[in-house]
Design brief:
Length: about 300
Amino acid sequence: MAQLAHETASAGAPPTDLLLHIGDLAYATGYESEWDRFLAQIEPLASRSPYMTMQGNHERDYPGTGSAIGGADSGGECGVPTQARFLMPTDDPRQQDKGWYSFAQGPVHFIMMDTEMSAAAGSAQLAFFEADLAAVDRSVTPWVIFSGHRPMYSSSDEKQGYDLANGPWWPDVEELLVRYKVDLCLWGHVHNAEVTCPLRRGECVSPQTPGEYDAPVHAIIGNAGQSLSPFRGAAPDWSLWRFAQFGFSTIRVDGPRGSLQMDFYADCQRANAHTHPVTTAPPANCSRANQLVHSFTITRRVKPYV
């Protein structure tokens, strides 16, 4: 947070057009003072740039509240503190509990999924996604980024992978993402970072003609706080990069030249990180901090463009 706030406020720094926090915001779980602490932490950022959020399991999940998951991870908050503090442009602004919505920022159309609510076939959320994607004018917003808290793909834990037992709507959502040529999917929940190849049904996809659309690239950006989740076992073929250290990510979109670049920064790296990649060391014990550790670029794959 300190580094991001410094970059945002620095003279001559590129403008920060938007901040995304895709679930698990304060981890307050019923303790009001944690919300006060969290809001004080994000104030240097949220006072300068739009701070767009969504509900994760630690905001929404509680038995009997309509959560599709049914856990007790919110500690009884049931989404109420989040919805009171972060009014988002939901499909019906009077119903913040239905946390899905979309918005445009520059050349990018963002879609925010509420993974704690159903998106199965026949659900209101899936119907919203289809109508919203069908209405995107790619000559105005050529890029489409889809975000949700629980990941569609993660190699960290088999229970978080494709076609979750407690979330059988993933295949329905994925078909829409491919049909409407979504460029990038951002996910949280798993406390590490990971980047995939263009994916469909758990397989890497190559375009039929070079330069044409193939499938969405997925990026997990859950390594910004709380604890860290180690990777166990070899990476599957669709996982191109994995990182189990604290850090943050940035996205830069170049509309005229047609590229989207995503950069991953390490917030803290120990001197022996090659042998102990997972670290909970505070910044004072870091040998390197805020180092660029990975980057990838997506070029325009959908026409027409302006």
